[in-house]
Design a protein that fits this description.
- The protein has helices at residues 33-41, 48-65, 71-85, 93-108, 114-144, 172-179, 196-207, 220-225, 251-260, 292-295, 336-343; strands at residues 6-9, 12-16, 27-30, 152-155, 185-189, 211-215, 231-234, 238-240, 245-248, 265-268, 274-275, 296-297, 300-301, 314-317, 324-327, 330-332.
- By secondary structure, the protein is of the alpha/beta class.
- It folds into 2 domains: 6-136, translation initiation factor eif-2b, domain 1 (Four Helix Bundle (Hemerythrin (Met), subunit A)), CATH 1.20.120; 146-343, Rossmann fold.
- The strands form 4 sheets. It has a 7-stranded mixed sheet, sandwiched between helices. It has a 4-stranded mixed sheet with strand order 11-8-9-14, with helices on one face. A 3-stranded antiparallel sheet has the order 1-2-3.
- The protein starts with 5 loop residues before the first strand and ends with a helix.
- The record marks 157 as: Transition state stabilizer.
- Keywords: Amino-acid biosynthesis, Isomerase, Methionine biosynthesis.
């Protein structure tokens, strides 16, 4: 069964509803900017690259939604809609990156034709989509150079095809390996509280024919101790200029364990996810989500109602725990600041 994370069709963004997987495969058609905003906010679409591509299409949709034909009013309203969309989720930098790319088209346009600007915005959104596919495949090839035949890789959360346009970031290594006839094995952390590892990663790898084993988050130390893991590969939502990396909550714990057991940790990072404007992880905003993600499982409370919760959606893995940051432009090792600066030159 082929599942398309996102499709642009007749000026609508069609998303697979990731809140329904793996039980049901349902699609949501986003016909308005508000539809895209809600899809990002409520995690119908998730994964930094997929959020970025969706945001680009969201701006294109907004461009077609606005009815005024007076150019200056149109431009003002469209830029305001861009700023609104940018508030959907705070941590993944791809959202703001994509919005800024679309704003650059708006601000760089020197004509006065609303129709022409609409067409240019749709064209740029499609380009961002196509670029994402190529970026992910190249990351997969770079990751494959770091592992060996028959290796077993532990991953956390979902950074696969469902989190991007195709291939994925962290999981791209498995798909590229299949294309090149290399056998790799996967261990997937369940990833509480929303269980993206169980619901998404295990689901998509299993359906792709990859040998995948699901574990709960608190089993990671044991499988490492038993020598079952050769490398850890995870995606990311934002990387600071010093290499500190924000990813799904629990990633830092995995990295600490890997350091203890002398297992390499690789971060799969499209360059739009690297934020050279911030110095370190302490500058990355961390989204805190509703406590009911912790207290309710499958519609039932698993704790006393009213108990206090703390539910940060991400944590920041310090650069010193990271073996390499793997981008479409190459593999970056410490010192990360210099290496990351070099790939943007």
């Amino acid at each position: 069964m082929e599942i398309k994370t996102l499709t642009w069709k007749e000026k609508e963004l069609v998303l697979v509803d990731q809140t329904k997987l793996p039980v049901d495969v349902e699609y949501v058609a986003c016909k308005t900017l508000e539809d895209v905003f809600v899809a990002i906010r409520d995690m119908i679409v998730r994964g930094a690259p997929a959020i970025g591509v969706s945001a680009a299409y969201g701006v294109a949709i907004a461009a077609y939604e606005i009815t005024t034909t007076e150019f200056d009013l149109y431009k003002t309203e469209l830029l305001s809609q861009c700023d609104y969309l940018n508030t959907a989720r705070p941590t993944a930098v791809n959202l703001s990156w994509a919005v800024e790319e679309m704003k650059a088209v708006i601000n760089g346009y020197e004509g006065q034709s609303v129709a022409e600007l609409k067409a240019l915005l749709e064209k740029r959104a499609i380009e961002i989509h196509e670029e994402d596919i190529m970026i992910n495949k190249t990351i997969g090839k770079n990751l494959l150079s770091l592992v060996k035949e028959d290796n077993t890789i532990l991953t956390h959360c979902n950074a696969g095809a469902l989190a991007t346009s195709e291939y994925g970031t962290a999981l791209s290594v498995f798909y590229v390996a299949q294309e090149e006839g290399v056998t790799l094995h996967a261990y997937a952390d369940e990833t509480r509280p929303r269980q993206q590892g169980a619901k998404l990663t295990a689901f998509e790898l299993y359906n792709a024919g990859v040998d995948v084993t699901l574990i709960t988050d608190n089993m990671a130390a044991e499988v490492m101790k038993e020598g079952k893991i050769d490398a850890v590969i995870v995606g990311c939502d934002r990387i600071a200029s010093n290499g500190d990396t924000a990813n799904k909550i629990g990633t830092m714990s995995v990295a600490i364990l890997a350091k203890h057991f002398n297992i390499p940790v690789y971060i799969a990072a499209p360059t739009p996810t690297i934020d050279m404007a911030i110095e370190s992880g302490k500058d990355i905003p961390i989204e805190e989500r509703d406590g009911e993600e912790i207290t309710i499982i499958n519609g039932e409370y698993v704790t006393a109602k009213g108990v206090k919760t703390y539910n940060p959606s991400f944590d920041v893995t310090p650069a010193e725990l990271i073996t390499a940051i793997v981008t479409e432009k190459g593999i970056v090792r410490a010192p990360f600041k210099e290496g990351l600066q070099a790939i943007f030159k």
